[in-house]
Specification:
By secondary structure, the protein is of the alpha/beta class. The strands form three sheets. The protein has a five-stranded parallel beta sheet with strand order 2-1-3-4-5, sandwiched between helices. A five-stranded mixed beta sheet has the order 7-9-10-12-11. Helix 4 links the parallel strand 3 and strand 4. The protein is elongated and about 90 Å long. The structure holds adenosine-5'-triphosphate (ATP) and magnesium ion (MG).
Length: 378
């Protein structure tokens, strides 16, 4: 899941649906059932009288939050929390402390529990706030870790790709310098062309890197008229289309979706260019169609190109993944990574199908506009 999407989901979580109370005292469990019932009337609250029972219950299903006592037979609340978190990352756990346990609970915070609440101070309001805050904090921790992991993978992949044009620049600079020194300038012009190509490639990688970084911020969303977006895509691909003698077909009346115009332009431009580039048909053709669904639109971008084997349909969205030789098709393998990230940042989804021998179809699902919806005509 994209980190931006996850961040939106976290913001939406308000009330938990399922809670688990772990306490060996029946009276305490009863009190917690009543208090949590009042704080979250719609939530299902289950209880466990023993830590081992709680472990089994958490293995069987996912709770939105676990509230555990500290002093229990066989295993204390902190040890239980450690085991539960090891089994289920980012599980919100609140330690309920008795008089005298507070110091220990403060220490336990460092070992992974989300929060602690002295039993003497448990009220409907305090428990509601503590549970909601714990769920929010765990959700945010998950988003930050995902973002960090995704960024590390991307940086690693990008660093690898930076090396090739840099090597090219070093090699050709040396060659040009040698050629000038020995007075053989015949190849200099050619080698300068290679230098220019390498510099342009570096420039593109820097652009991609900054676009990717920007996509970590949630974009501004508004109603986007896809007619405008498709017109801009048509204008930008016109020279390539003319050169290849290709066709680009878009709906005469495209829908309005909820998203970001700049991102949508980048996404569609990328998909349309791919459809034309990875294509050996005598007339390369890309067609965009729009289908309406409940509260969303799905755009279908289909081509009569090379197609993609089933085993690679998910791989193509990974950074630097390319199916075709660089010598034949110049591409950096980042277009679809950016497109996917941009679609997820708009609360959408993107996937690809490629029926054997029939080119590729990319599907982009996006929320419908908040204003009136129009029916597309193909
Ligand atoms: N419509 C398509 N038909 C066939 N193969 C495709 C299609 N779109 C993408 N691919 C394959 O997926 C790979 C990844 O595409 P992606 O757009 O991410 O990168 P790219 O086109 O190589 O480079 P760029 O970053 O310039 O877009 C491509 O290299 C190509 O092999
Ligand atoms: Mg591409």
């Amino acid at each position: 899941m994209s980190a931006v999407l996850a961040a939106r989901e976290v913001a939406k979580i308000e009330t938990p649906k399922s809670l688990l109370v772990v306490d060996d005292s029946k009276a305490e469990r009863e009190i917690m059932l009543l208090t949590l019932g009042a704080a979250f009337p719609a939530a299902e609250v289950l209880t466990a009288a023993h830590p081992l029972m709680a472990k089994q219950m958490c293995a069987d299903r996912r709770f939105d939050c676990v509230l555990t006592d500290y002093n229990m037979p066989d295993m204390d609340g902190v040890a239980l929390a450690g085991e539960l978190i090891a089994a289920t990352a980012y599980l919100p756990i609140i330690l309920m402390t008795s008089v005298g346990d507070e110091m220990l609970a403060a220490k336990a915070l460092r070992s992974g529990i989300s929060d602690y609440l002295p039993k003497s101070r448990i009220t409907t309001e305090s428990i509601r706030r503590t549970v909601e805050r714990s769920i929010q904090a765990c959700g945010q921790a998950r988003v930050i870790d995902e973002q960090r992991g995704e960024l590390e993978n991307f940086a690693y992949a990008l660093a690898h790709d930076f090396k090739q044009p840099i090597r090219q620049i070093v090699t050709f600079t040396q060659m040009i310098s040698d050629e000038i020194q020995i007075g053989e300038a015949g190849e200099v012009h050619n080698h300068l062309t290679f230098l220019g190509e390498a510099a342009r490639r570096l420039g593109k990688l820097v652009d991609v890197m900054s676009q990717y970084t920007l996509l970590n911020q949630p974009p501004e969303l508004a109603d986007v008229d896809l007619n405008r977006v498709l017109a801009s895509v048509r204008a930008s691909i016109a020279p390539y289309l003319a050169e290849r003698g290709g066709e680009f077909v878009a709906p005469s009346q495209a829908p309005t979706i909820r998203g970001n115009e700049t991102l949508m332009t980048q996404v569609l431009q990328n998909l349309v260019m791919n459809g034309l580039q990875y294509n050996r048909s005598s007339v390369p053709r890309v067609e965009v169609a729009a289908r309406s669904g409940a509260g969303h639109w799905t755009l279908e971008i289909s081509d009569n190109g090379l197609g993609i084997e089933a085993e690679y349909l998910a791989e193509i969205f990974k950074p630097l993944f390319r199916l075709h030789a660089a010598s034949e098709y110049a591409g950096s393998g980042l277009g679809l990574t950016l497109a996917r990230k941009a679609v997820l940042a708009q609360d959408g989804a993107i996937w690809c199908e490629s029926p054997p021998g029939r080119g590729s179809v990319f599907h982009v699902r996006l929320p419908a506009a908040q204003g009136t919806r129009r029916t597309p005509q193909h």
